[in-house]
Amino acid sequence: GESVGLHLPTLSVQEGDNSIINCAYSNSASDYFIWYKQESGKGPQFIIDIRSNMDKRQGQRVTVLLNKTVKHLSLQIAATQPGDSAVYFCAENGLGGGADGLTFGKGTHLIIQP
Amino acid sequence: NAGVTQTPKFQVLKTGQSMTLQCAQDMNHEYMSWYRQDPGMGLRLIHYSVGAGITDQGEVPNGYNVSRSTTEDFPLRLLSAAPSQTSVYFCASRLLAGIPPSTDTQYFGPGTRLTVL
C-alpha cells in the first residue's frame, strides 16, 4: 500500500561529517516532497522541499535528492553540528488528508557524536 | 509574532473526561490543522480548516471535534477521552496558496502532550 518511510530509525555521525538520511515512498503520483526537522519537545520545522520536476535542490548546508525511478528521497546535511541532532522525517503529497494531502514518514533520529 | 501557540503543554485526563486543546496563530493564516504524533508513526491528520467557519475531517477524526469561529483560533475538543488518545498533538497553520502546497510557510506549534489514564 501507499506509505512513506525511512530506512533507518537511528543514524549516528561524527560532528563535522556529512549525514545522509533516506526516505522511500510508494505513491508514484506524489509530486511534492518535504523534509522536516523535529527537536526534542518541539514541533516539526520545515527544512527544504522539492517538486517532482527536479532531481536536486540545495539549501544552506542541506541538499535534497529525488530519484523518481526508485521512489527514493534523501536529505544530505553537510558538516553536521551538534544542533543538527533531531528527528528528521519526510512528507509527500500522496494520498494523505487535508488540503495538502500530505503523508508523513516515521522519522530518523540523527545523533551527532562529539 | 508569536507564531502558533498551543495550550496546555501537558495534560493528564481520566478515561471519559472531556477537554479542549487550544491553538492560536497570529499570522493571519487561512489553513489550520491538527495532527497527532505517536511513537513509531508519522504525523496523522485529525481535522483541518481552510478558513473561518469551514472544517473537515482528516485521517483519524474519530473522538475529536473542531470548530473555527475566527481565523486565529482552532480548538480541538476531546469529547470522552480514551487511553488510545494518549499522544502528542500538534497544531499547524499556513497560508492557503493558490497552487498547493506552499508548505514552506507551514508552521507547527510546540505540541501538547496528552496522557489518558
Describe this structure in words.
Chain A has strands at about 5, 10-15, 20-25, 30-40, 45-50, 55-60, 60-65, 70-75, 85-90, 105, 110-114. Chain A is mainly β and about 110 residues long. In chain A, the strands form two sheets. In chain A, strands 2, 4, 5, 9, 10 and 11 form a six-stranded mixed sheet that branches. A five-stranded antiparallel sheet of chain A has the order 1-3-8-7-6, with no helix packed on it. In chain A, a hairpin with a 3-residue loop joins β6 and β7 (about 60-65). The model of chain A has no long low-confidence stretch (mean pLDDT about 90). In chain B, the strands form two sheets. In chain B, strands 2, 4, 5, 6, 9, 10 and 11 form a seven-stranded mixed sheet that branches. In chain B, strands 1-3-8-7 form a four-stranded antiparallel sheet, with no helix packed on it. Chain B is about 0% helix and about 45% strand. In chain B, a hairpin with a 2-residue loop joins β5 and β6 (about 55). Chain B is globular. The chains are: A mainly beta (about 110), B mainly beta (about 120). At the A-B interface, β5 and β10 of A face β5 of B.
* Mean pLDDT, all residues of chain B: 91
Q: What series of H and E elements makes up the topology of chain B?
A: EEEEEEEEEEE
Gyration radius from CA atoms of chain B, angstroms: 14 Å
Mean pLDDT of chain A: 88
* Biggest beta sheet summary of chain A: 6 strands, mixed
Alpha-beta classification of chain A: mainly beta
Tell me the distance between the termini of chain A.
40 Å
- What is the radius of gyration of chain A? 13 Å
Number of helices of chain A: 0
Morphology of chain B: globular
State the total count of DSSP E strands of chain A.
Answer: 11
Largest interface: A-B, 25 and 27 residues
Question: What percent of the residues of chain B sit in helical stretches (DSSP H or I)?
Answer: under 10%
| Beta strand count of chain B | 11
Distance between the termini of chain B: 36 Å
Largest sheet of chain B: 7 strands, mixed
SSE topology string of chain A = EEEEEEEEEEE
